[in-house]
Structures are given as structure tokens and as C-alpha cells.
Amino acid sequence: MDGASGLNAIQQMFERAKAENRSAFLPYFPIGYPTYDESIAAIRTMAQEQVDGFEIGIPFSDPLADGAVIQAASQIALDNGTTVKKALTAVRELRSHGVKQPMLMFSYLNPLIAYGTEQFVYDAKAAGADGLIVPDLPPEEAHLFAAACEREQMALVFFVAPTTHPARIHLIGEKATGFIYVVSVTGITGTRTELPSDLREFIARVRSATAQPLVMGFGISKPEHVQMIHGLVDGFIVGSALVKAAKEGTEAVRMLTQSLR
Amino acid sequence: MTYIQTHATSVPDERGYYGEFGGRFVPETLIPALDELTIAYHEAMLDADFQHELSHLQTTYTGRPTPLTYAKRLSEQLGGAQIYLKREDLAHTGAHKINNALGQALLAKRMGKQRIVAETGAGQHGVASATACALLGLDCHVYMGSVDIARQQPNVFRMRLLGSEVIAVESGSKTLKDAINEAIRDWVTNVRDTFYLLGSALGPHPYPMIVRDFQSVIGTEARQQMLDQVGRLPDACIACVGGGSNAIGLFHAFRDDESVDLIGVEAGGHGVLSGEHAARFADPVIGRPGVLHGTRSFVMQTTDGQIVNTHSISAGLDYASVGPEHAYLRQVERAYYTLATDEEALAALQTLSRTEGIIPALESAHAVAEVIKRAPTMPKESVLLVNLSGRGDKDLDTVIKALDHGIS
Questions:
Q1: Taking the CB of residue B48, how many other CB atoms lie within 10 A of it?
Q2: What class, spelled out in words, does domain A24-260 have in CATH?
Q3: Distance (Å, rounded) from C-alpha A189 to C-alpha B29?
Q4: To probe the interface with A, which of B28, B36, B187 has the most A CB atoms within 10 Å?
Q5: CB atoms within 10 A of CB A123
Q6: How much is the ipTM here?
Q7: pLDDT 10s digits, B21-55
Q8: Percentages helix, strand, coil for chain A, rounded to the nearest 5?
């Protein structure tokens, strides 16, 4: 991770995890939850625990891909005065505290339109971010960010869902840079007791249509889940479970992070 | 008899855009479902049996065509233009919402989707969906904000009586915006066997087009009725605009009639300066292009892109965005948008009740308020056509409370 940024840093992240025979662990955490300072503390704690990268959440009033836990956390973060600008400040602050892992900004589209989509890419890069994930941006609308991301060598991540047809997976693979976010189930974010049993077939279908690294998210919350996807995907995302843990404090975040890595 | 027009329309393009508005901004899981819906819809439109079944239900169940009523006393009192009312309040369930609900429910059935989810604000679309599902034997689940449930109890009871499940939404502002979020979350989760019956001309493509087409029966009938009863087209068509389904349904048949002005009336709430309103086009500080619920249109938002809470006395107009085709019609200057405040709508409701014996829905009263402003400035031989999109029975509680507080 030393010196590399943007796409290079993300590529190195996957290579390192692969060398250690692991899937990269990319926690999601929203800035401003439960407070700005506590969100910084939670992310720094996870960085100390050697997670591989981060999805840095920017709160939105209407997060329609998210379940109850992240919705509630987003509302609290907004009530705390968290803005797009503040989230970029957080990235800068995390970098100044020595957090070296790749960071991808996770935001719904409307706050980025309000900020200015290209300007956001430049400012995020300047703050120290390495990529961008927009859950309500389909690859057909990649043009909103693609040119700026290419210029800045920032990752622009798109999603594949269990409902996505092979021809479309191919298109998504062509538009995505950095990795593809594979949604484990049809649905919204949130912890689940079990992951679907047909994950292996689903991932095989995706692999046959694209050579991009695959990072799985939605429903991953326990060490058993991480075991289950081991060897299947290049990385995994945990969000809601960490947000829940953060309610109990930074130590709970540390414990959960240790159990998942 | 074919009511639905799918040809000779220039918008949307194949990507679902109306100029720079519209499109599809949803999680990937839903994109294949929207593709499937688009194909199924086009197939249904070309299927004579589908068209016949819809048309048969419109005639024998909904009560179409709805009448065109000359508002003689109101016209005389205002002393200007002659006023005609398109009586969607006389459609089954008391509003235009049934036109779209029946069309989409038939489409769901044709697609083999037994489970229906819908959102509702005031409850009118929820009742229309519950009605269509009861008629066609579909399972209906309606998401409704808990704030709306508390203030619209009769409609909640109607939906349950019709066999639907009403699910209280406790997130966000607990109103229509959040009910749509929750309906979309349900749809994403159960997408393989579930049909999302969206109630207004908004959301991701193809919904704005489908809803417009199913509602276009309003304008198609009204245009012919004007020619038959008056012998000419109106000088202007006026309709209220929340999401904008009744307005687009009226406007669509007149889009190529250059002599006919198209006027949409937004909810001015307590006035634009108060900040408490739902006039997306009238307040350039708060109402700006953005993306909400899968479509690019005008959206009421903070400078940081967060969706703001809106206000209108009429729950059906109380929404932070507006159908993308309205944003387009405004941009190309084919339609003009104005607003009526809560106070003006309440006054219009009383005026129409006393002069014509018709109690309009508070939504429709916004359109009537614009007529009251406009008619006196026009010559007596001019003609205004107003969409009376719904009846006012559902609003009696709200009206009683507002009048008790001396608003009128």
C-alpha cells in the first residue's frame, strides 16, 4: 500500500490478500455515526486490525438499497450535520492519522449530483480516496463519473446481482474499474443468518463473463459466512454488523473485526 | 375501442429519457426486472386481447367514459371563460388512480406475478391497487407511512376490507417518500415473483411511460367529448401535479394541439417563501434537478443533496419530486406550471361545492383554484378544461379541521 493510490492501491490490495490466501476484507462504515469522532475512531481501529480496505459511507436521507440498520445510522449521521464535504474531511483526517488502506467513497447519486459529480471525483482523490461506489448508478450512466475517474485513476465500482443476465455481467465488467461488487442475495443490506446456498453457481456465472476481481456484500456478518465465501471471491464487505457493533463502542468494533479477518 | 396510444409519441427515448429527465437509477438487482417489465408492456400493448380486456373493464367496472360536465354556475360567477370538468371523481373508487391500477394489475397477471406491492400516501392509489387486486385475485401489500396511516384511517380500513395488507412505514418522514423507499426495498427482495404497482408517473423507466399511457384515457376521452359537446378544443387544460399522473393523463392527448395551453398546478402549501410547500418548479433554491426514486427530475433538496420534507394540505401532492415528463414539458415550454396554496385550494373546494354540487378532492381543488384565478381574465367565448381528478369525501376530516382553524 505504500505510495500507491487509486486503482494501483486497490490492485495491490487484492494481490496481497491473495498471497496470504485470504479474501480481502473491506468494512463499510458511515461517517458521522454515532458521531463524527466516533466514526473516525471506529475506522482507525479497523485499520489497526489490518483490514484490507474501506467503504467510507456518505449518509443519504433516502438510502433505498439499505436495510434498517444503515438507514437508521444514516439518519443519525445526517442529524449530526454530516455532509459530503465532511466525509471528504474525514478521509483527509484518516490519512493524516496514518490510515494506509484503500478507501472507496460509498454514496447515493443525488448528494454527488448536488456536489458536482466530476468535482467530487477530484476532491475525493485530493482527500486521499481511491475509488467510488454509487449503488443507484447503473453502468449505463457511468459517463457521469467515468472520465474524471479515469483521469484520476480512481476506481468506479459497479454491481452484479443474482438477477443479472450473463450478457449484462459482461457489460458491467467492461464499465467497472477496481472490482465488481457482487450482491449475494436479491434484497437490501443487513445481517442475515445464512447466505444463499447457490452462491457457488452464481459466482461461477459471474467469473465466466468477466475477469474483474469480485467483492461480495450484503448479509455477511459472521466468521462462518467468511469461511463460506473463502476461495470463491476476491473480497468481501461487512456493513450492518459493524454499524450495530459501533453502537456498543469501539471495542465491539475491534472484536468483530478480529473475528472476521 | 382502444384507449391506449403507444405510437406517435416522441418521448421517452429507448433509454427512458424525456430530454435530460427520466432514465433509470436503481440498484442493479432491479434492472433485469425493469427490462422484463418493458418487454412485457410492449407485448401487451400489441395484444388485442389485452387491450380488449382493459377496455371492457374500463367500461363495465370503472364506469368509463367519465362525463364531461359544464360548470355553468361557476363559469357565470367567475364571469369569463366557460369551464368544463373532466369527472374522474366519478370513476370507481373515486379518483383517476384506478385507471393505472387496473392496467398494471392486468399486466402483472399477464406476467404471471401473483404478489403485488404498492405505495400510497393519502391512500387513493392504495385503495385503487387493493381494488384491482381484489377484482383480479392478486395478493396486495401496500406500504404506507405511519403518519399517513394515522391521518387517513378510512382508507386504511378500505384497503383491509378489500383484502390487502397495509404495512406501516416507520422510517424517515413516515410519509409517501418513505413508503416508496420501502416498496422498492420489498420489490428488490422479492423481485422474482413480485410486481411493483407504482401509482404515479415517476420512478425508473418504464414506469413514467406505463402510468402515462394507462392514464391517457382521461385526455383521449376529454378531447373527443370537447369536440362532441362544445365543437372545439379548449384554450387550456388544467390539472394538479403531485407525481403528475392525472395531469400527464390529461395532457397527453393534447400534446400536438398547439392552440391548447397545458397548465400544471403544484402544491404551494403555506406559500413558496415559507419553505413549507411541494412546488418543485417554483422554488429554485430548493427545487433543482436531481435523482430520487430512480428517476432524474426536479427534486426538493438541501444544498447538500438531501431530500427535504415537503408540505401540502393535500397528501396526494405532498411529494419531493415530480414525474420526469413534466420536467421535460416545462423545459421545452410545452406546458406551464404554477401553484395554489393550501388556503387557495380550500377556498376553491368550497366554491366548487357551492356552485356545482361537486366536492372535489383537495388535490383537484388546486386545479380549480387556478381556474378561479384565470377564468375571469379570459373572454366569455374561451374554454377551460379542468381535470377533476378525485372526489373530496376522503378529505372531509382535513377540511373540517382546517376550516375550524379559520384558514378559510
A1: 8
A2: alpha beta
A3: 12
A4: B28
A5: 18
A6: 0.96
A7: 999 999 999 999 999 999 999 999 999 999 999 99
A8: 50, 15, 35
